[in-house]
Amino acid sequence: MSAWVEIGERCWVRRYEEWDLNIGLVVGSDGALLVDTRATTEQAEELREHIREVTDEPVRWVVNTHAHFDHVVGNSVFTDATVYLHENAATEEDLSGTTFSVAKVIDLGDRRVELVHLGNAHTSGDAVVVVPDVDVYFLGDLVEESAPPSYGEDSFPLEWADTLEMVVGMMATAAKVVPGHGAVVDIEFVRNQTNDLGTVANTISGLHHDGTSLDDALKHTEDWPWPVEKLQDAIKRGYEALGTPRRPTLPLLGPG
User: Fold this and answer.
1) CA torsion, points 233, 235, 240, 241, in degrees to nearest 10?
2) Which pTM value belongs to this model?
3) pLDDT tens for each residue of 14-62
4) How far apart are CA 194 and CA 188, in angstroms?
5) Which of 120, 138, 173, 230 is the most buried (most CB within 10 A)?
6) SS3 for 94?
7) Are 203 and 226 in contact (CB under 8 A)?
8) DSSP state of 3
9) Which domains does the chain possess?
């Protein structure tokens, strides 16, 4: 059974076995804020009971890091909370809530939580959740610790590294980072994963530039930081963004 771990004053994370999912909880003088809500209403009802283990404050705010089901289906259980999510996340999955475009500050009474959107990455609607007084960052699936980053049919493999690099630029050296799945990490882990995400983007772009067909790119086994089987959607999405590759041409011979 998982348990709450306090990673900053009145700021907890709980790692659930189902989907290896991390849930965040931040408590202020005016109530509690929940980061993501699990994959089913039953799991969310269990979460509601688990919250009572660390605070009696009511959950007044829910933040969804993005629109995927394992992070949002439990929203409906927290009926007294205002749900916040990025406007693209709301559009993608027809989710209801209070949306933001670039940034939003939630006042918890004696502390604040900041929501930031810095660009396309795991999805078009990834929210970075910052608790500045304890230097904690909830990144959702922008970063994963227990598996390779999840490239899906709604991911942006050519932009992901650039977006995450901007997130790293916000962090102090001692930042504590909560990935969507897996153990809490530090800024160095995030930097390394950013580099690997950049390698994926560069490899896709290089294959495309060389005139490699999509079929051949999907079978390409060199240069990747993760097994190519995990990168099929990344390659497809990258090629979709870049268009049909040109056939490679021989250099024209000069006069001779």
Assistant:
1) 110
2) 0.95
3) 999 999 999 999 999 999 999 999 999 999 999 999 999 999 999 999 9
4) 10
5) 138
6) coil
7) no
8) -
9) 4-185 (3.60.15.10)
